[in-house]
Each structure stands twice: as C-alpha cells, then as structure tokens.
From TrEMBL:
Family: Belongs to the uracil-DNA glycosylase (UDG) superfamily. Type 4 (UDGa) family.
Organism: Roseobacter ponti
Residue stretches making up the Uracil-DNA glycosylase-like domain: 38-194
Highest taxon of source: Bacteria
Protein name (database record): Type-4 uracil-DNA glycosylase
Residues of the full protein shown: 272 to 475 of 485
C-alpha cells in the first residue's frame, strides 16, 4: 500500500509540471505561439537532452524535436548508439518565437531575457528528472544551463558544471547542420556531433 501511495504521488507531480508549463504566461512569447511544449520522456531517464525552443512543427504538434532538426537528430543519434526514447528531451525555451513572412513562420532565436524567464521551467524539469548528465544542443541551451554564452565550437565535446553540479555536455544544434551550405564543413560538424552524442550515451 505504501508503494502504491508513493507511485501515485509521483505521478501527480509529474503530470502537474507539463500542465503548469502549458499554462505559462510569464513572458510575451505565449501570445503568438500555438502552445507551450513541455519536455517528454521517462521520469527515470539518466540523460536529459536540452534543445533551444520549439520550431514550427513542434509548436503545432506540442512535442519537442519532431520537425526537420529533430529528425536529423534522431538519424545521427541512431548512428551514435544513443536511444532517444530512453532520454528526457526538452527545450531551454518552451514557446516558439517566430516572425511571420507571408504564410510562413520564420524561427527567431530567443534572447537572453526570454531564456532567463524560461529557465524556471527547465530547472523544474531537471529537479523532477534528476539526470546523471545533460546534453546541451546549441548556444541557447548552453547559456541557460551554464550561464556562459561564450563560443560554442570552442566548448563542444566537453562537460561543464550545470544546475546542482550536474555535468552539462556541450554540443552544437542539429539545425546548424541543416543550415550549413559548405559540404566539407557540414561533414566535419556532423562527425563532431555524432561523437558528442556517443559521449553523452557513455556518460549516462
Ligand atoms: N529546435 C529545437 O531547438 N527544439 C525543438 O524542439 C525543435 C527544433
């Protein structure tokens, strides 16, 4: 009976956080986005993956990393032996920030103030999951998790101290690979990304 009681208390806490995130009006980004996108994955996850913010597809579907950058992430993670389904995946900022252009919605990087406002939710997710290692995808996640906005490519492939002393492994964002027009640069960055994902898997 004790066990059943503990399980239901835990479930209540876990349901409550996504519900609170979906109701968030702490910054103006909620006004134009379709919905907030909370993290998803097992509560027992040892690895937490933090991307930047929902994109167009994530905003519509309400799930993190399911659009083109997420699909590229899944492909390279598969090559690196990293199981996405075993990780808890979330974003540093929970609402999509964009600029309308005709019928398109063009992604805009969240600024330091928006990232800071949303850090409350990211830290709540970290406290809920208590991962062994956190993988930061790109500069916004790295800033939110370490407080440092210095050059990402100098820092990638290594762990820094994150919230509560949890190691934060820094890597690039998969959207960088999608945008990179130079074939050789893209291949080199893809190799780096794959090796960072393999390291995250080994550390978790
Ligand atoms: N880019 C992100 O950073 N996060 C998503 O969820 C999708 C695209």
């Amino acid at each position: 009976a004790q066990q059943a009681h503990l399980t239901s208390a835990w479930d209540g806490l876990a349901d409550d956080l996504p519900r609170q995130i979906r109701a968030c009006t702490r910054c103006p980004l909620h006004r134009s986005a379709t919905q907030a996108v909370p993290g998803e994955g097992p509560l027992s996850a040892r690895l937490m993956i933090v991307a930047e913010q929902p994109g167009d597809q994530e905003d519509l579907q309400g799930r993190p990393l399911v659009g083109p950058a997420g699909q590229l992430f899944d492909r390279i993670a598969g090559d690196a032996g990293l199981d996405r389904n075993a990780a808890f995946i979330t974003n540093a900022v929970k609402h999509f920030k964009f600029r309308p252009r005709g019928r398109q919605r063009i992604h805009q990087r969240p600024d330091a103030g928006e990232t800071e406002h949303c850090r409350w939710w990211l830290e709540s997710e970290i406290n809920l999951i208590r991962p062994v290692v956190i993988l930061a995808l790109g500069a916004t996640a790295a800033l939110s998790l370490t407080g440092s906005g210095t050059d990402l490519m100098q820092r990638r492939g290594r762990a820094e101290a994150g919230p509560g002393g949890i190691p934060v492994l820094i890597t690039l964002h998969p959207a960088y690979l999608l945008r990179q027009p130079d074939v050789d640069k893209k291949a080199a960055a893809t190799d780096q990304f794959r090796s960072d994902l393999a390291l995250a898997q080994r550390m978790s």
